[in-house]
Design goal:
globular, alpha/beta, 10 strands, about 45% helix, about 20% strand
Length: about 270
């Protein structure tokens, strides 16, 4: 049975209230497919029955599960490739010059999902700046506690490591764990995972040299995009770098950024 308008509207309202993510009309199939496993686990006849049950008998744990199911995004190793190349070949060398005194870098992987982006960055930094005696810390945040637990474990199936991870890096930085692969401890310890709603305060996060906020702004309305970009700018050092997704931009959203091209990749830097 297709998702009813009442069930869809209730889910959209819940997700927007909890995460500020906007689910537009036409996303009914996405909502239904994401909630099928939850409905089955609860013994509900279908997704409509599951949603109606939660709607009529509110349960906080179930509401959180629904929001997490709808806000978990696809990810992969070195997703889209070019941003990571720009990071390693241009951004890191520039920061090594400007941070020569502190010899320390802080990176924020926002909306990090199951950790592939954060660990991809950690591997690159381990093989460059750490080898030269620098310190590097990566903060990886996500709304979903479920995906963060998986990310912390750093254990991935063969199918997951096949999605974008070069074989030489798999051999060098992973260890077999039964049928799976686990990120080596020296890479895992470079990353700190923390639950964070991007619409909440960033005051306790500290300052960053680079922020990866990729493929997440597209889910927010204009006012929320502007708010998030403004608060990201306040935690990014004045000469820092912001990476957005290929379909995302600061243009027409927040004019306090300037765009810089690195090859075919756009990075965004705070205007002074």
């Amino acid at each position: 049975m297709a998702l009813t308008p009442t069930a869809f509207e209730w889910v959209c309202t819940l997700v927007r209230k909890e995460s500020a993510i906007v689910l537009e009309k036409g996303k009914e199939y996405l909502v239904e497919s994401r909630l099928v496993p939850l409905a089955r686990a609860a013994g509900a006849a279908d997704v409509n029955a599951y949603v109606d049950g939660v709607r009529l008998r509110p349960d906080r744990r179930t509401q959180v599960a629904i929001v997490e199911a709808l806000t978990t995004n696809e990810t992969s190793w070195y997703r889209d490739g070019a941003p990571f190349q720009a990071f390693s070949t241009t951004v890191v060398p520039a920061l090594k010059q400007s941070r020569a005194t502190t010899r320390s870098l802080r990176i924020w992987s926002a909306a990090s999902s199951t950790g592939q982006e954060a660990y991809s960055l950690a591997i690159g930094l381990h093989d460059s700046v750490l080898a030269e005696g620098w310190r590097a810390e990566i903060l990886a945040t996500d709304l979903s506690t479920e995906v963060l637990e998986k990310a912390k474990a750093g254990t991935y199936s063969q199918l997951e490591v096949n999605r974008g991870l070069p074989a030489p890096l798999l051999v060098r930085h992973f260890t077999r764990a039964g049928m799976n692969w686990q990120v080596n401890a020296n890479i895992r310890q470079m990353v700190r995972f923390q639950q964070l709603n991007l619409t909440s305060s960033y005051a306790a996060l500290g300052q960053f040299d680079v922020v990866f906020l990729r493929n997440v702004l597209i889910y927010f309305d204009l006012a929320t995009k502007r708010d998030i970009l403004g608060r990201v700018r306040r935690v990014l050092r004045p000469d820092g770098y912001l990476f957005l997704g290929g379909a995302e931009t600061t243009l027409g959203v927040d004019d306090n950024w300037e765009r810089q091209l690195i090859g075919r990749v756009s990075v965004h830097r705070p205007k002074n």
